[in-house]
Protein backbone atom coordinates (compact mmCIF):
# COMPACT_ATOMS: atom_id res chain seq x y z
CA UNK A 1 0.00 0.00 0.00
CA UNK A 2 1.26 3.53 -0.84
CA UNK A 3 2.66 5.38 2.15
CA UNK A 4 0.55 8.57 2.07
CA UNK A 5 2.32 10.18 5.03
CA UNK A 6 5.91 9.75 3.82
CA UNK A 7 7.79 13.09 3.95
CA UNK A 8 4.99 14.83 5.87
CA UNK A 9 6.04 17.14 8.68
CA UNK A 10 4.36 15.89 11.85
CA UNK A 11 4.44 17.93 15.07
CA UNK A 12 3.54 16.01 18.25
CA UNK A 13 2.99 17.72 21.61
CA UNK A 14 3.22 15.60 24.76
CA UNK A 15 5.77 13.49 22.89
CA UNK A 16 7.98 12.61 25.86
CA UNK A 17 5.67 9.94 27.27
CA UNK A 18 2.65 7.72 26.79
CA UNK A 19 0.54 8.07 23.66
CA UNK A 20 2.67 10.89 22.22
CA UNK A 21 5.88 8.90 22.59
CA UNK A 22 4.38 5.79 20.99
CA UNK A 23 2.98 7.89 18.12
CA UNK A 24 6.47 9.32 17.62
CA UNK A 25 7.91 5.79 17.24
CA UNK A 26 5.17 4.68 14.87
CA UNK A 27 5.45 7.83 12.73
CA UNK A 28 9.25 7.57 12.69
CA UNK A 29 8.96 4.21 10.92
CA UNK A 30 6.93 5.90 8.15
CA UNK A 31 9.81 8.20 7.06
CA UNK A 32 8.10 11.41 8.14
CA UNK A 33 9.83 14.51 9.50
CA UNK A 34 9.14 14.87 13.20
CA UNK A 35 8.94 17.80 15.60
CA UNK A 36 8.66 16.49 19.15
CA UNK A 37 7.52 18.81 21.94
CA UNK A 38 7.02 18.66 25.71
CA UNK A 39 8.63 20.15 28.84
CA UNK A 40 11.12 17.33 29.48
CA UNK A 41 13.93 18.09 27.02
CA UNK A 42 16.12 15.21 28.22
CA UNK A 43 13.40 12.65 27.47
CA UNK A 44 12.72 14.33 24.11
CA UNK A 45 16.36 14.24 23.07
CA UNK A 46 16.58 10.55 23.91
CA UNK A 47 13.44 9.93 21.84
CA UNK A 48 14.82 12.08 19.02
CA UNK A 49 17.85 9.78 18.75
CA UNK A 50 15.58 6.72 18.59
CA UNK A 51 13.43 8.31 15.86
CA UNK A 52 16.53 9.33 13.88
CA UNK A 53 17.67 5.70 14.01
CA UNK A 54 14.32 4.66 12.56
CA UNK A 55 14.96 6.98 9.60
CA UNK A 56 12.92 10.05 10.51
CA UNK A 57 14.54 13.47 10.46
CA UNK A 58 13.62 14.70 13.94
CA UNK A 59 13.97 17.76 16.16
CA UNK A 60 12.87 18.29 19.75
CA UNK A 61 11.49 21.55 21.13
CA UNK A 62 11.13 22.18 24.86
CA UNK A 63 7.57 23.47 25.15
CA UNK A 64 5.09 24.14 27.92
CA UNK A 65 1.82 24.21 25.98
CA UNK A 66 0.13 26.28 28.68
CA UNK A 67 2.35 29.18 27.53
CA UNK A 68 1.23 30.85 24.29
CA UNK A 69 4.81 32.18 23.79
CA UNK A 70 6.17 28.62 23.99
CA UNK A 71 3.58 27.40 21.48
CA UNK A 72 4.47 30.20 19.05
CA UNK A 73 8.19 29.38 19.42
CA UNK A 74 7.47 25.66 18.85
CA UNK A 75 5.65 26.41 15.57
CA UNK A 76 8.33 28.94 14.47
CA UNK A 77 11.09 26.38 15.10
CA UNK A 78 9.20 23.69 13.17
CA UNK A 79 8.80 26.05 10.20
CA UNK A 80 12.41 27.21 10.53
CA UNK A 81 13.66 23.62 10.31
CA UNK A 82 11.26 21.98 7.83
CA UNK A 83 9.48 24.90 6.10
CA UNK A 84 5.99 23.45 6.59
CA UNK A 85 3.66 21.59 8.95
CA UNK A 86 1.32 18.90 7.61
CA UNK A 87 -0.03 17.27 10.78
CA UNK A 88 -0.32 18.81 14.24
CA UNK A 89 -1.00 16.14 16.88
CA UNK A 90 -1.87 17.50 20.31
CA UNK A 91 -1.30 14.85 23.00
CA UNK A 92 -0.06 17.01 25.89
CA UNK A 93 -2.34 16.45 28.84
CA UNK A 94 -2.70 16.22 32.61
CA UNK A 95 -5.42 14.65 34.73
CA UNK A 96 -7.07 14.70 38.17
CA UNK A 97 -8.62 12.29 40.60
CA UNK A 98 -10.63 13.99 43.36
CA UNK A 99 -14.34 14.45 44.06
CA UNK A 100 -15.27 18.12 43.54
CA UNK A 101 -16.21 18.70 47.19
CA UNK A 102 -12.87 17.38 48.44
CA UNK A 103 -10.79 19.81 46.34
CA UNK A 104 -8.66 22.14 48.50
CA UNK A 105 -6.80 23.89 45.68
CA UNK A 106 -9.03 25.44 43.02
CA UNK A 107 -5.90 26.10 40.94
CA UNK A 108 -6.25 22.52 39.67
CA UNK A 109 -9.11 23.64 37.46
CA UNK A 110 -7.06 26.44 35.89
CA UNK A 111 -4.10 24.14 35.28
CA UNK A 112 -6.24 21.47 33.63
CA UNK A 113 -7.80 24.06 31.35
CA UNK A 114 -4.43 25.69 30.58
CA UNK A 115 -2.74 22.47 29.48
CA UNK A 116 -5.58 20.33 28.10
CA UNK A 117 -7.62 23.08 26.41
CA UNK A 118 -5.66 26.33 26.03
CA UNK A 119 -2.56 24.41 24.91
CA UNK A 120 -4.60 23.18 21.96
CA UNK A 121 -6.00 26.66 21.27
CA UNK A 122 -2.53 28.31 21.25
CA UNK A 123 -0.79 25.69 19.11
CA UNK A 124 -3.68 25.50 16.63
CA UNK A 125 -3.70 29.30 16.38
CA UNK A 126 -0.01 29.65 15.53
CA UNK A 127 0.00 26.59 13.23
CA UNK A 128 -3.13 27.47 11.27
CA UNK A 129 -1.68 29.69 8.53
CA UNK A 130 0.94 27.00 7.85
CA UNK A 131 -1.61 24.16 7.88
CA UNK A 132 -3.72 26.07 5.33
CA UNK A 133 -0.75 26.05 2.93
CA UNK A 134 -0.39 22.25 3.18
CA UNK A 135 -4.13 21.48 3.50
CA UNK A 136 -3.05 19.86 6.71
CA UNK A 137 -4.65 18.11 9.64
CA UNK A 138 -5.15 19.03 13.31
CA UNK A 139 -5.45 16.01 15.61
CA UNK A 140 -6.72 16.77 19.11
CA UNK A 141 -6.49 14.01 21.71
CA UNK A 142 -9.60 14.32 23.84
CA UNK A 143 -11.13 11.45 25.87
CA UNK A 144 -14.35 9.54 26.43
CA UNK A 145 -14.56 12.05 29.29
CA UNK A 146 -15.15 14.68 26.60
CA UNK A 147 -18.34 12.80 25.68
CA UNK A 148 -19.80 12.32 29.15
CA UNK A 149 -18.78 13.29 32.69
CA UNK A 150 -16.88 10.92 35.01
CA UNK A 151 -16.92 11.17 38.85
CA UNK A 152 -13.66 12.42 40.38
CA UNK A 153 -12.81 14.13 37.10
CA UNK A 154 -14.87 17.34 37.00
CA UNK A 155 -12.00 19.56 35.87
CA UNK A 156 -10.49 17.00 33.47
CA UNK A 157 -13.82 16.16 31.88
CA UNK A 158 -14.67 19.88 31.50
CA UNK A 159 -11.33 20.48 29.76
CA UNK A 160 -12.05 17.63 27.32
CA UNK A 161 -15.58 18.90 26.60
CA UNK A 162 -13.87 22.21 25.79
CA UNK A 163 -11.52 20.41 23.38
CA UNK A 164 -14.49 18.76 21.64
CA UNK A 165 -16.41 22.05 21.32
CA UNK A 166 -13.36 23.95 20.09
CA UNK A 167 -12.53 21.25 17.53
CA UNK A 168 -16.09 20.90 16.21
CA UNK A 169 -16.41 24.69 15.81
CA UNK A 170 -13.00 25.06 14.15
CA UNK A 171 -13.76 22.22 11.72
CA UNK A 172 -16.81 24.09 10.42
CA UNK A 173 -14.88 27.36 10.13
CA UNK A 174 -12.18 25.59 8.10
CA UNK A 175 -14.45 23.61 5.80
CA UNK A 176 -13.37 25.39 2.59
CA UNK A 177 -9.67 25.58 3.43
CA UNK A 178 -8.65 21.94 3.03
CA UNK A 179 -7.63 21.77 6.71
CA UNK A 180 -9.31 18.91 8.59
CA UNK A 181 -9.78 18.42 12.33
CA UNK A 182 -9.74 14.96 13.93
CA UNK A 183 -10.90 14.49 17.53
CA UNK A 184 -9.61 11.33 19.21
CA UNK A 185 -11.51 10.03 22.24
CA UNK A 186 -9.62 7.15 23.86
CA UNK A 187 -10.96 5.08 26.73
CA UNK A 188 -8.44 4.05 29.40
CA UNK A 189 -4.98 3.47 27.89
CA UNK A 190 -2.07 1.77 29.64
CA UNK A 191 0.08 4.86 30.31
CA UNK A 192 1.37 6.48 33.47
CA UNK A 193 -1.39 9.10 33.27
CA UNK A 194 -3.64 6.74 35.19
CA UNK A 195 -1.32 6.99 38.23
CA UNK A 196 -0.20 10.61 37.91
CA UNK A 197 -3.13 12.89 38.55
CA UNK A 198 -3.86 15.98 40.62
CA UNK A 199 -5.23 14.99 44.02
CA UNK A 200 -7.56 17.15 46.14
CA UNK A 201 -4.60 19.21 47.44
CA UNK A 202 -3.36 20.02 43.95
CA UNK A 203 -0.27 17.84 44.20
CA UNK A 204 0.71 15.61 41.34
CA UNK A 205 3.10 12.73 41.70
CA UNK A 206 5.98 12.81 39.23
CA UNK A 207 7.08 9.29 40.05
CA UNK A 208 6.15 6.25 38.05
CA UNK A 209 4.05 4.46 40.62
CA UNK A 210 2.61 1.34 39.12
CA UNK A 211 2.55 -0.85 36.07
CA UNK A 212 -0.58 -0.01 34.08
CA UNK A 213 -3.27 -2.68 34.10
CA UNK A 214 -2.93 -5.31 31.43
CA UNK A 215 -6.60 -5.52 30.44
CA UNK A 216 -6.89 -1.95 29.22
CA UNK A 217 -5.93 -0.88 25.70
CA UNK A 218 -2.18 -0.89 25.10
CA UNK A 219 -0.51 2.33 24.08
CA UNK A 220 0.72 0.72 20.85
CA UNK A 221 -2.82 -0.27 19.81
CA UNK A 222 -4.03 3.23 20.68
CA UNK A 223 -1.29 4.87 18.57
CA UNK A 224 -1.94 2.51 15.64
CA UNK A 225 -5.66 3.38 15.67
CA UNK A 226 -4.76 7.09 15.69
CA UNK A 227 -2.31 6.64 12.81
CA UNK A 228 -4.94 4.78 10.76
CA UNK A 229 -7.53 7.51 11.45
CA UNK A 230 -5.00 10.16 10.36
CA UNK A 231 -4.33 8.34 7.08
CA UNK A 232 -8.12 8.10 6.45
CA UNK A 233 -8.50 11.77 7.52
CA UNK A 234 -11.38 10.84 9.82
CA UNK A 235 -13.14 13.57 11.82
CA UNK A 236 -13.74 11.43 14.94
CA UNK A 237 -12.09 8.41 16.50
CA UNK A 238 -13.91 7.00 19.51
CA UNK A 239 -11.96 4.06 20.80
CA UNK A 240 -14.29 1.68 22.59
CA UNK A 241 -17.61 0.13 21.61
CA UNK A 242 -19.18 1.52 24.81
CA UNK A 243 -17.73 4.95 24.01
CA UNK A 244 -19.30 4.92 20.55
CA UNK A 245 -22.71 4.16 22.12
CA UNK A 246 -22.55 6.92 24.77
CA UNK A 247 -24.11 9.79 22.72
CA UNK A 248 -26.97 7.57 21.52
CA UNK A 249 -27.78 5.95 24.86
CA UNK A 250 -27.56 9.35 26.60
CA UNK A 251 -30.45 10.58 24.44
CA UNK A 252 -32.84 7.91 25.69
CA UNK A 253 -31.41 6.80 29.05
CA UNK A 254 -29.05 9.42 30.53
CA UNK A 255 -29.34 8.04 34.09
CA UNK A 256 -28.33 4.61 32.82
CA UNK A 257 -25.15 6.16 31.33
CA UNK A 258 -24.41 7.87 34.68
CA UNK A 259 -24.77 4.55 36.53
CA UNK A 260 -22.65 2.72 33.98
CA UNK A 261 -19.87 5.30 34.20
CA UNK A 262 -19.96 5.35 38.04
CA UNK A 263 -19.66 1.54 38.15
CA UNK A 264 -16.89 1.50 35.55
CA UNK A 265 -14.86 4.10 37.47
CA UNK A 266 -15.32 2.23 40.76
CA UNK A 267 -14.23 -1.04 39.16
CA UNK A 268 -11.23 0.62 37.44
CA UNK A 269 -9.85 2.08 40.68
CA UNK A 270 -10.57 -1.10 42.65
CA UNK A 271 -8.34 -2.99 40.21
CA UNK A 272 -5.37 -0.61 39.71
N1 LIG B 1 -3.98 7.36 29.27
C1 LIG B 1 -5.29 7.38 29.22
O1 LIG B 1 -5.96 6.54 29.84
C2 LIG B 1 -6.00 8.42 28.39
C3 LIG B 1 -7.35 8.24 28.11
C4 LIG B 1 -8.02 9.19 27.37
C5 LIG B 1 -7.36 10.31 26.91
N2 LIG B 1 -6.05 10.48 27.20
C6 LIG B 1 -5.40 11.71 26.71
O2 LIG B 1 -4.30 11.36 25.90
C7 LIG B 1 -3.30 12.39 25.97
C8 LIG B 1 -1.96 11.72 26.30
O3 LIG B 1 -2.09 11.06 27.55
P1 LIG B 1 -1.05 9.95 28.05
O4 LIG B 1 -1.82 8.86 28.64
O5 LIG B 1 -0.07 9.69 26.98
O6 LIG B 1 -0.37 10.76 29.25
P2 LIG B 1 1.12 10.70 29.84
O7 LIG B 1 1.74 9.39 29.61
O8 LIG B 1 0.98 11.22 31.24
O9 LIG B 1 1.87 11.79 28.96
C9 LIG B 1 1.45 13.12 29.00
C10 LIG B 1 2.33 13.94 28.08
O10 LIG B 1 1.88 15.30 28.17
C11 LIG B 1 3.03 16.12 28.37
N3 LIG B 1 2.67 17.33 29.09
C12 LIG B 1 2.05 17.45 30.29
N4 LIG B 1 1.93 18.75 30.61
C13 LIG B 1 2.49 19.46 29.60
C14 LIG B 1 2.70 20.84 29.36
N5 LIG B 1 2.30 21.78 30.22
N6 LIG B 1 3.29 21.21 28.20
C15 LIG B 1 3.72 20.28 27.31
N7 LIG B 1 3.55 18.97 27.48
C16 LIG B 1 2.95 18.56 28.62
C17 LIG B 1 4.01 15.24 29.15
O11 LIG B 1 5.36 15.64 28.90
P3 LIG B 1 6.26 16.55 29.86
O12 LIG B 1 6.01 16.13 31.26
O13 LIG B 1 7.63 16.27 29.35
O14 LIG B 1 5.85 17.97 29.57
C18 LIG B 1 3.80 13.90 28.48
O15 LIG B 1 4.58 13.79 27.33
C19 LIG B 1 -3.77 13.37 27.04
O16 LIG B 1 -4.38 14.47 26.42
C20 LIG B 1 -4.82 12.57 27.81
O17 LIG B 1 -5.78 13.41 28.40
C21 LIG B 1 -5.34 9.56 27.92
UniProtKB/TrEMBL annotation:
Write one Pfam family the protein is assigned to.
adh_short
Per the database record, which ranges form the Ketoreductase domain? 8-192
Lineage top rank: taxon:
Bacteria
Gene Ontology annotations for the cellular component aspect, listed alphabetically: membrane
Q: Which terms are listed as keywords in the entry?
A: Oxidoreductase
Spell out the family assignment given in the record's similarity comment.
Belongs to the short-chain dehydrogenases/reductases (SDR) family.
- The protein in question is named Short chain dehydrogenase
Q: Which organism is it from?
A: Leptospira adleri
Amino acid sequence: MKNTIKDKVVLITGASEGIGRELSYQFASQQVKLVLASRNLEALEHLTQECLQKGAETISVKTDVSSSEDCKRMIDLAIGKFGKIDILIQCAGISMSAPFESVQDLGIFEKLMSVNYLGIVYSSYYALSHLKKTKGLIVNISSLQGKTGFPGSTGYSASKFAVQGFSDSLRIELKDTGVDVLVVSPGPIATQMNFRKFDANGTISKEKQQTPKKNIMSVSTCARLILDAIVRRDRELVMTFGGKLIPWVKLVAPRFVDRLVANAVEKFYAEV
